[in-house]
Write a structure and sequence with these properties.
The chain is an alpha/beta fold. It has seven helices and seven strands.
Length: 193
Amino acid sequence: MSFILASGSASRRAILNNAGLDFEVDPAHVDEDALKEGFSGDLGDLALALAEAKALAVSARRDGLVLGADQVLDLDGELHDKARSVQEAEAKLRALRGRTHWLKGGIAAARGGEIVWRHKSACRMVVRDFTDAFLDRYLDEAGDILTQGVGAYAFEGLGAQLFEEVEGDYYAVLGLPLLPVLSMLRDQNAAPV
């Protein structure tokens, strides 16, 4: 019993490893910018479309069950991508300070080049009104996490200090809503029942 994770995300790998699952990692290389360009509608639908594209891309070249995942940051209906530098991360965190945003996730499973399961999640994230001194210290200590996630934070670690309130599935915040995924894996004979 195993499956393929079509993602290079260290957070997603850790969630699945910690759950004791047997899987391979084969990151999908899809043109996310092309999918995002001209997209209109709920950003949760965009996250799901990205997850489906990743699952299908790997499923086209591999046998077995493939799990694709993506997550987008929705601030007042505007899409925010990963920061490409510390300077972009700082600007992003300043824009999020004292405001509420949504992390919208999409998960899809494919087998034989067809989607066999899909799931969407949405988590409400309330960023506290942190001081400039805190932000400076955070930027100095955060390191690689600044450019690895859409919010320039890793909620499972140092990034938790940025928040005053979070509503939603903890694992969905991290990028992989584990309980729905486990249920699907059992249904697809890819995890113990």
